[in-house]
Write a structure and sequence with these properties.
heterodimer, A: mainly beta, 4-stranded antiparallel β-sheet, B: mainly beta, 5-stranded mixed β-sheet
Chain lengths: 116, 111
């Protein structure tokens, strides 16, 4: 029973490039959440998606960041024109329809983005 | 959202019990209390949650105060693998998925 799969595990991008982070939820889960953890800081909610819908993007920066969760395939967090301040660990979590009410969220191991 | 207060750090010896406290005095009556932990270089891991009654699972026990203003996560026998940051998170189902992670408690386990 594979858990939440995130790839790549590590990603290095030069300033101005695009970063694409992928998240495959647990089997049977159709709710995906993205969080960001800046160095030496706590995790911050970014966006909540269901299949083909963005439910809550109130934690997303207004520019350069976007997320999608298509009908087929993984959820993608895209960061355009990356800057050094985007360097962080990005975590994806998934859940069933009851959210965290019953069993909590399952998190992936994260993608560590380094912008050079 | 309810504010939480946890000690920045705690220490324990291996195979001893650990009691990790959390104050959440502004918690609402319908908020569950969730605990997650984050091992080094890993994503957060769900530990346990409860509403009013004490809860047990294979990982830990959760003791919730009668007035629900505080709770304690209990690791019955700490192992080296339990060294992690532990987060106490009030969770309201209506928040559509958001978990608010504070700074948590860094638990160090000594062999």
């Amino acid at each position: 029973n594979a858990g939440v799969m995130q790839n790549p595990r590590h990603l290095v991008r030069r300033r101005g490039q695009e970063a694409r982070l992928r998240c495959s939820p647990m089997k049977g889960h159709s709710h995906v959440y993205w969080y960001r953890q800046l160095p030496e800081e706590g995790l911050k909610f970014m966006v909540y998606l269901q299949k083909e819908n963005i439910i809550d993007e109130s934690g997303m920066p207004k520019e350069r960041f976007s997320a999608e969760f298509p009908k087929e395939g993984p959820s993608i967090l895209r960061i355009q024109q990356v800057v050094r301040g985007d360097s962080a660990a990005y975590f994806c979590a998934s859940s069933g329809p009851l959210g965290a009410t019953r069993d909590g969220y399952t998190f992936g191991s994260g993608t560590r983005l380094t912008v050079v | 959202d309810a504010k939480t207060t946890q000690p920045n750090s705690m220490e324990s010896n291996e195979e001893e019990p650990v009691h990790l406290p959390c104050n959440h005095s502004t918690i609402s009556g319908t908020d569950y209390i969730h605990w997650y932990r984050q091992l080094p270089s890993q994503g957060p891991e769900y530990v346990i949650h409860g509403l009013t009654s004490n809860v047990n699972n294979r990982m830990a026990s959760l003791a919730i105060a009668e007035d629900r203003k505080s709770s304690t996560l209990i690791l019955h026998r700490a192992t080296l693998r339990d060294a992690a940051v532990y987060y106490c998170i009030p969770y309201r189902g209506s928040t559509l998925g958001r978990l608010y992670f504070g700074r948590g408690t860094q638990l160090t386990v000594w062999p």
